[in-house]
Amino acid sequence: MYSYFRIVRSGIEEITNWPNNFISKLLNPVLYLLFLGIAMNSMINKTSNNISYIVFLFPGLLCIEASNSFSRTIFMSSNHLKWGVISLFVLTGSSIIDYIAAMITTALVLFLTQATILGLIMLAFGFAPITSILRAVFTSALGLLFWVPAGLIIGITIKGYMKRDLITTIVVLPLMLSSTAFYDLHNAPVVLRFISYLNPITCHVDLVRSSFSSNQALNRNALIIFIILIIFTFISALLLLKRTDLVSGER
Amino acid sequence: MKTLDINHLTKRYSSSSNYAINDISFSCESGKIYGFFGPNGSGKTTTINIVSTMLAPTSGDVYVCGYSIRKDKDSIRKLIGLSAQKQSINWFLNVFQNIDVYSSIKNKRVRHNKIEELLSEFGLLEKRNLSVDDLSGGELKRIEIIRALLSDPKLLFVDEPTVGVDPIGAKKISTYLRKMASCGSTILVASHDLEAIENILDNVIFINKGKIISEGGYSEFLYTFSHGIKAHIKTRSTPNLPASLITKYLISINDNIITVILKNSDNITSELQHVQELLISEGVIIEDLQIESPSLRDAFINIVENGAHNV
User: Fold this and answer.
1) From the candidates B16, B45, B51, B54, which should be mutated to test the interface with A, based on the most A CB atoms within 10 A?
2) CB within 8 Å: A17 and B92
3) What residues does CATH 3.30.70 cover in chain B?
4) Where is mean pLDDT largest: A19-28, A81-90, B160-169?
5) A7–B105 C-beta distance less than 8 A
6) Which residues of B touch A94 (CB under 8 A)?
7) What's the CATH architecture for B2-224?
8) ipTM for the complex shown
9) What b/e readout covers B81-96, taking b as 16+ CB neighbours within 10 angstroms?
10) Which of A138, B43, B60, B160 is within CB 3.0–4.6 Å of B210 for a Cys-Cys bond?
């Protein structure tokens, strides 16, 4: 247990040692909420769910921030493998589960910091009650259990930073744009709706949006699908890391 | 007591048809420093990576303090320390954090003042809060060495400990390694900087093309594989060498300096006296005499270039 906490501390140090990067991570979602949210809110009176755009956007934004842990994990885990950091953790007596759990916890710390700022803005402007905000933050944090192991799988298996960058570019932006994070796709063409339903971000957004709304029941189908995805990716990441040679030839 | 026992170890990478190491066996005892030598690509790093449980062998087994790498990886990891050839540095952490995180996981009792003491010893105390980006290659190597020293291992692998390190730093590293061995640790040093470490070695293991060429005591290794002790004899003029000297010894002449290679390491004094008598009997006037001890470098080159192991 000690090594898990120690790796978490090291992960937080990795973030705070680079304050410019850390501040931009905190600032990005705030700018999205303030500018995109408020600007669109003034343009669109109500969404198809009969709620204001900023209330519609908030759960989507939380899910996007959770899904950002995917590309961050790819970057960090591939560097950890390349630099011999994972092998050093293992050599010092930490387990692979310690490492995976610490990566998820570090992502959680970053996510909760972002979510707290967003939640405070929502509260300050009176867009949502605190209970709804807390429910949304809790369900969106579940996303980290999927996105961090998924990032680990890519970060560990794909050798070469150019390939990894390509995958990150090909996967992240289309996933974000084809999800229901920023807009409602109920009236979109069938093809777009079909693509959107295959998107894990959409599944996550549906779950978080249902938990955020006080007059809507929790979307159990989305929850079940998401839990299945979490179990599958977590086990895959664990098995993969246990079998991977912890010595990388990458420079 | 055997700390390390390697039995018929073989490794073949899936990307290559050749064996990185092929059926190697050797053992190491506690409290001794072993030089683990061989040319580039000979299989040293592969062996170290397998023994440190970072790579799976194709066949064979390794025992560290009686634990098998096939069954007891976790137990072995607690017993070993590693300063790898490829620096294991987390570039997002500063100097102190790069040491503290691993040392405290391995040994919770490691105190910050102990880390600072070693940072000071290795000239890094003032740089403790700097980004590792600001350090030279030699300083990064020192971070690795400090980390390995703090882990207090039973078996320590040090791959290229003095690369990029200045002579004073290299001397400090050697002194610390000797100190650790005297406390019972077994140390395997792989290095091409032979002069920097040759005075601390007890034994030598030589590997070439994935096979163990030699395993034994340091002096024995030197006298077996180097040219032997060289006597450089300065004479007043270019001498005519006696036939008895030429037939008996390996000799070279450069102007008025005769270099004689003495192979009988057990009785160097009488052999040298015999050489001098032969020269004097031919009327050669000796002005100066210098003795050159056999070096690890000589032995290394002799094995790799001349295939001395086949002699």
Assistant:
1) B54
2) yes
3) 228-293
4) A19-28
5) yes
6) 105
7) 3-Layer(aba) Sandwich (3.40)
8) 0.82
9) bbbbbbbbbbebbbbb
10) B43
